[in-house]
Structure formats: C-alpha cells, structure tokens
C-alpha cells in the first residue's frame, strides 16, 4: 500500500475516497490540523469556548433511582444534554469552526438530517461572525420545519436538497459538491465521525472531551474505572467521544447501541454494523447498509439522528477487532426507555440517547452491584416530545 493510502486508516477502514479537487484541500486541513492539535494556544482557545460558551464540563450524574430500580450495576449518566444547544454536537462544531478560522475561512457549510448539526453549525457561525449555509434533504426540511426556522433565525441559509431520496445521505453529497465548487473561503463542518480523513480523527479528538471528563469525574467520585461505557451510534461521534479515553483500558467494556428500527432483521432498520457490509461512500471505506448491487439502502429509525446508512471507520475497526461491541435497540424499546428515564430520573432525554438507556435497562440487572456503567446522554429530548406523543397515539395541537 502506498504511504498516502495509509493515511487516516483504521485497519482496512477509513482513507480518502474523494474527487481530485478536494484532495489538495484535505491535505492542507490535515497538515494544519496536526499542527494546531499540539499548539497550546489553539488548545486554550478551544477550552475557553467549551467552558465559557458550551457550558462544559458536563455533569457525570449518579442515577440513583434507575440503579435501585434495575438492581444491578451502578449507573452514571454523562449529561451531554446539558450543553449549550442541547447535545454533544457543539463540541465538534466548535473545534472544526476554530480550525476553519485558523485556515482563514469565512464561510461554513454543513449537512444536516433532523437539523441538530445544522443548528449547532449555525450557532457557531453566528458567534464567529461567519457566513453559514446548511444543506438539508427536502424531505427533512418538511419534517423539521422548526429547525429550519431556527437555523434561519441564527443567520444561516438553508438549501433543500432535491436529489436522491432527499434525505441525510443526499445532503452530505450536496455539501461535498458545494465544497468542491467553492473551496477558497469555505470549510465543510462534518457532523459525525465519518467522511474522508482527517474528519473522523478530528471528530474523535473534539468529542473525546466526553470520555476525558467522565474518566476524571468517576475517578474523583469512586476512585475507579467504569466496567462498561454505553453510547448510541448514528455516524458514531458521541460514541467515539465516549469511548476514546477508555480504548486503552482493556477492563472497560465498550458498547455502541445502534437503532434497529423495526428490528435488526427487518428491512426497516439503521443497524449498520450488525447488518451492513464493506463499501465506499461519503469519502470513506466503512460498513454500509447496501443492496446486492452495492447501492446504499434506505435506512429507517424512529430517531432522525441515528438514521444514517453508514458508520464511522473507527467503529467499523473497533467492531472487527472485537474491542467494542455493537447491539441493536428497536423503536419500541427506545420509546419505552424515553418514558422510563423521564419517570425515574426526571430527565427528558433525546430519543437517540434513549437507545443507549434501553440497553442499560437490559444489561444493568445482569451485572453486580459493585460494577459501574457510564451511559452517555447525547442530547435532550424536548425536540422529540411531540413525535413520541404521536407514536403513542396522543394528539397534540401545535
Ligand atoms: C446527531 C445525534 C446523534 C447521532 O450522531 P452520532 O454522530 O452517532 O453521535 C445522537 N444523539 C443526538 C442527541 C444527536 O443529535
């Protein structure tokens, strides 16, 4: 293998599968990012924004009621839902926007599915006084009108994407194309641990604040490592951030929870690692849900944030090596967890995060009371209340 082909590899996964026009730009970003990564003033600037804008560190909360109710392992929740804008996405967006600023870029573009990443990007663009354009599948703009308006309120322009099935994967393609056509002043802020190198690495690094904090917080409270870390997996950014600082601690079991939708074996699922196969898409080699002709399959999950047909290359490698385990949770199980954590702990968590909570409900009772689970709550659930009510057959006027 040529040296350049080894760049950004996780085992056989990762790499850079992109048009020639973007290659030079990615090399510039790669070089600049590796310089900045070790630059103390960049790190101080990043940390200042995380603390004073995003409200970090997030709490590591002991879920006493859940622990007692489930009667097994002690459960700690890493509260990314308490960050500014209500999810972990802000950690990554702040980091990439700072890289963009250092590269002299004045315009940020991004894809969004449900609108969470678009909102986070529009937020930072407003803060930094940068231009912002968001690409969103036309289907999604119709389903998520409130987030479209929120992005516009923050000063962003939202482009409905009308190619393909007009959903997230098409929005990624459209953003890549836009980037290739206007590189000089523009930076593409990718929303998950996916895409060509060095994006998965940048996202890993910027989200690793989750596990660095959690490790230290648990050390202070219990003077020990957790036995298990659980996080939901869409593209895999909150999960890789939750795993990062524990990957080299072999005693810590890492569990990524995928959205099984109507069931891992049904044809309405987003369980990419369990059901997918090796392919090349969105600039990376990884696992994707594909049909027999290698076309990307339609994905389905009740949670818009987990509705991605692929997964980040580092997760594909962690799964292959057996360092992390990946399990599926269905819509019904996630909705039950949404209600459970609200009633037990008084926390309305994002339906994405509730996939992780549902797995904790299953696994905690099988563990000893001296064992510890850290479960990441990737976001807050306000955005989901109306659709869960509908799922339960409750009519809400809006
Ligand atoms: C976007 C999102 C996810 C899924 O994305 P990952 O990159 O897999 O973390 C999960 N939870 C919330 C709240 C999200 O907004």
Averaged pLDDT, please?
A: 96
**What is the top-level CATH class of the largest domain?**
Alpha Beta
Strand content: 15-25%
Count of helical stretches: 17
CATH architecture of the largest domain: 3-Layer(aba) Sandwich
Could you give a quick summary of the protein structure above?
One of its GO terms (cellular component) is cytoplasm. This protein has helices spanning 3-6, 20-37, 40-52, 64-70, 89-102, 116-128, 138-143, 145-153, 168-181, 199-207, 209-222, 237-243, 272-275, 313-321, 331-345, 351-363, 385-391; strands spanning 9-10, 13-14, 60-62, 74-79, 107-112, 131-137, 157-161, 186-188, 228-233, 253-261, 277-281, 284-288, 324-330, 372-377.
Please describe the structure with a list of short key phrases separated by commas or semicolons.
Rossmann fold, 6-stranded mixed β-sheet, 17 helices, alpha/beta, binds pyridoxal-5'-phosphate, globular, 4-stranded parallel β-sheet, 14 strands, 2 domains, 398 residues
Structural commentary:
A 6-stranded mixed sheet has the order 3-4-14-9-10-13, with helices on both faces. It has a 4-stranded parallel sheet with strand order 7-6-5-8, sandwiched between helices. A two-stranded antiparallel sheet has the order 1-2. The longest helix is centred in the N-terminal third of the chain and has 18 residues, at 20-37. The mean pLDDT is 96. Strand 5 (107-112), helix 6 and strand 6 (131-137) form a beta-alpha-beta unit. The protein starts with a helix and ends in a 7-residue tail after the last helix. It has helices spanning 3-6, 20-37, 40-52, 64-70, 89-102, 116-128, 138-143, 145-153, 168-181, 199-207, 209-222, 237-243, 272-275, 313-321, 331-345, 351-363, 385-391; strands spanning 9-10, 13-14, 60-62, 74-79, 107-112, 131-137, 157-161, 186-188, 228-233, 253-261, 277-281, 284-288, 324-330, 372-377. The protein is built from 17 helices and 14 strands. Helix 5 (89-102) packs across helix 10. The chain has 2 domains: 11-50 and 88-203, 3-Layer(aba) Sandwich (Rossmann fold), CATH 3.40.50.1100; 57-86 and 208-391, 3-Layer(aba) Sandwich (Rossmann fold), CATH 3.40.50. The protein has 398 residues and is α/β, with parallel strands linked by helices. Helices cover 44% and strands 18% of the residues. Bound molecules: pyridoxal-5'-phosphate (PLP). Pyridoxal-5'-phosphate binds next to strand 9, helix 12 and helix 16.
């Amino acid at each position: 293998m040529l040296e350049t082909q080894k760049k950004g590899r996780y085992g056989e996964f990762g790499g850079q599968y992109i048009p020639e026009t973007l290659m030079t730009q990615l090399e510039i970003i790669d070089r600049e990012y590796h310089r900045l990564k070790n630059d103390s003033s960049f790190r101080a600037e990043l940390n200042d924004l995380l603390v004073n804008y995003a409200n970090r560190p997030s709490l590591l909360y002991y879920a006493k009621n859940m622990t007692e109710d489930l009667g097994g392992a002690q459960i700690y929740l890493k509260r990314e839902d308490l960050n500014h804008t209500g999810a972990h996405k802000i950690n990554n967006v702040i980091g990439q926007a700072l890289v963009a600023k250092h590269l002299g870029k004045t315009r940020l573009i991004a894809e969004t599915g449900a609108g969470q990443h678009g909102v986070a990007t529009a937020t930072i663009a407003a803060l930094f006084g940068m231009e912002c354009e968001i690409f969103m599948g036309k289907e999604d703009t119709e389903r998520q009108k409130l987030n479209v308006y929120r992005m516009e309120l923050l000063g962003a322009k939202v482009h409905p994407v009308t190619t393909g099935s007009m959903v997230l994967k098409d929005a990624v393609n459209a953003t890549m194309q836009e980037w290739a056509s206007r590189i000089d002043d523009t930076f593409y802020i990718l929303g998950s641990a996916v895409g060509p190198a060095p994006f998965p690495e940048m996202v890993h690094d910027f989200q690793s604040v989750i596990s660095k904090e959690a490790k230290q917080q648990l050390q202070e409270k219990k003077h020990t490592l957790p036995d298990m870390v659980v996080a939901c997996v869409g593209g895999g950014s909150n999960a890789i951030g939750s795993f990062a600082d524990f990957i080299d601690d072999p005693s810590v079991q890492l569990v990524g929870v995928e959205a099984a939708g109507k069931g891992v074996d049904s044809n309405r699922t987003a369980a990419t690692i369990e059901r997918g196969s090796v392919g090349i898409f969105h600039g990376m080699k990884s696992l994707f849900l594909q049909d027999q002709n290698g076309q990307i399959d339609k994905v389905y999950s009740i949670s818009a944030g987990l509705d991605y047909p692929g997964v980040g290359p580092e997760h594909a490698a962690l799964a292959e090596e057996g360092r992390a385990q990946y399990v599926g949770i269905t819509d019904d199980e996630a909705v039950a967890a949404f209600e459970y954590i609200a009633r037990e702990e008084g926390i309305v968590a994002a339906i994405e995060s509730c996939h992780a909570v549902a797995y904790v409900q299953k696994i905690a009772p099988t563990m000893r009371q001296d064992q510890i689970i850290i479960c990441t709550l990737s976001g807050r659930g306000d955005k989901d209340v109306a659709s869960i009510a509908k799922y339960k057959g409750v009519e809400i006027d809006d």
